[in-house]
Queue: 2 jobs
Job 1
Amino acid sequence: MNDQFEQALNQIAEEKDISKDEILKMIEVSLAAAFRKDYGKKDQNIVVEFLPETLGTKVFDVKTVVETVEDPVKEMTVEDAKEHKKNAKIGDEIKIDITPKTGAKFGRIAAQTAKQVIVQKIREAERGVMFSDYKAKERQLVNGMVQRIEGDTILVDLGKATGVLFPSEQVRGEKYAIGARLKVLILHVEPTAKGPKITLSRSHPDVVRRLFEVEVPEIANGIVEIKSIAREAGSRTKIAVWSSQDGVDEIGACVGQGGTRVKVVMSELSGEKIDIISWSEDHVKFIANALSPAKILNVELNEDNKEAKVGVLEDQLSLAIGKAGQNVRLAARLTGWKIDIIEEKINGGEATAVAEAPVAEAKPDASETVAESAPQEESQNE
């Protein structure tokens, strides 16, 4: 291969993150477009083979052998094909060499056409590579920088592309300033004519999941598993964790010594409170854990309707329900059970129900597009 050509090829491949084979195919397509402009006929399907060793080209009219010709540009009958290949049969590809014996000399318009084609193909390839790269990062946390603010919508520079943080995916109360760095979740990626459309999120439960995966080695290596997350972004999150290894304290691993690990996550989430609970296969235990920090007297299950009646003492009622019903609401989402809190009082050592709190149903928020199983925790209550 010509040294200068190879050097240019390597440079383009590196800068554009496109394989050399792909670039060579682009050159062939652009040369075919130029040849068609100056030398082509209407019924020819022109294909150019570029020879990088000599920087030469071969031009072919390529046809497929069919029984009945519907597209004369790309097809020919068996009879016509046998003029070029004696044993031609249906389905064969016939390549008719139409390379000019004196070589092809392209005019200005043909050269411009070739240039436009190769530029367009390179842009298409760049968009394809970019889409594949970011598609592979869906539901992953990435670093970004606030590039622009348009009304309530935030445009975030991700390096090679720009992502969009819509108001529905922002955290209530968070302020975003141009130039500020932040961690965002790539929610989903869609291909468009102008490149990938990347939707970001700060409010999705998976933001919490990925932050814990970064901060807690036991989660990253699979010793501790996050079974379920219920989140009201900007206010409070409950996560249920479980350890597959005996002797490992799943809550302690997530909290860290002196709360260092969970504090890092809370700091990234602008102080959002996080309750970490232990997950259990026992629904009664899991529901009781999910209502932490309230102390539960009893749990009565209706398996058919997936409803749970939970008894608490009077002094634990407001704690179990939480401010504006938040604690019981998050517990219902975390466990997947409809939870009804019942106040009980002790008479002669026996608990008697005296009142019921409103029922909290296990309805995910709009941001919780992916649901998982369930777990319980140590509360970071302030």
Job 2
Amino acid sequence: MLDELIREIKAFIIETLDLEDISPDDIDADALLFGDGLGLDSIDSLELGVGLQKRYGLKISAEDEEARRIFSSVRTLATYVAAHQTV
């Protein structure tokens, strides 16, 4: 179940951020999403947050102390979605 969601989250990131020339297989589920990992920035995090709310019914506030941990990798994001999904 989590493996399916990880693949779905990878595709969601690519689609939401309009990443070109990258496939879900190119994204390491445990690599950092920001900085030296996938290289996302704060604007990307806002877009992902809006996308998560639309697709999964989740709202993660930037002020949430957990947000940094939740968005650290595809795996941590998928784990959070699995535990809190309402849609």
